[in-house]
Automatic annotation (TrEMBL):
Listed InterPro entries: YdjM-like (IPR007404)
Top-level taxon: Bacteria
GO molecular function ontology, one term from the record: hydrolase activity
TM spans (from-to): 54-75, 82-101, 121-138, 211-232
One Pfam family matching this protein: YdjM
Organism of derivation: Paenibacillus lacisoli
Keywords annotated in UniProt: Hydrolase, Membrane, Transmembrane, Transmembrane helix
Protein name: Metal-dependent hydrolase
Amino acid sequence: MMGRAHLVIGTGVSLSLLHLQGVPVTVGAAATALVGSLLPDIDEPNSLLMTRTMPNGMLRVLQLAMVILAVWLCVDGAVQSPWNIVLSLAIAAVSFLPFRALRKVLMLIIGVGLAVYGGDYTPWNLVAGCLLVVCTVLPHRGLTHTVYGLAVWTALLYGTTSNSGDSIWLAGGIAYLLHLLADSLTNRGIKPLPPFKWRLRFNLMSTGTRHGAIVENVCILLTLLLTGFVFLPGWGWGN
């Protein structure tokens, strides 16, 4: 499914389920559900999550910074010749990569930074940093679209937020799970338990096609109806 459908379905359904179970729906839970609904697509640089967190403007700043660094290495003399030239050319070459590849470079930089420096503040930063680094080399619908990815995300949320109640980790975990279930509706499906080759695939739609768009819009409409019945005064459970 497309990012818009994942966002609406994952956030709307997860928060509705929390409310129906009597779990407080907080701002933190809503924000975590929103992130969780898109997070499995962190392995796709052009996904809605990646293009919103790493917009083109940020990538242009990264390109400029890399060009400046390449020039500085050439003229400063901090690195012995000819290695300064080699390093400068390598950095300059990376700066002209397509934005899709640059997003992975930026994710790698952030991941290394969290792993090296963030671990001093909380061990979860080290885990998150390592996961970001790993995601830069994963194929789309790979490890992040598995039960293992769901378990790691939910465990991270539980370990960092459970002292404040159950709403955040439940919202994030349910939203992530809904993303996986939504992708299982496509003709490609997902492999939830690698290295086992079993594929969860209902083959109800193909992303990017007219039929796929109809299925997505129906799912979005059903989600909006559910949230209306749950939350809006005068509607069903919201009454």
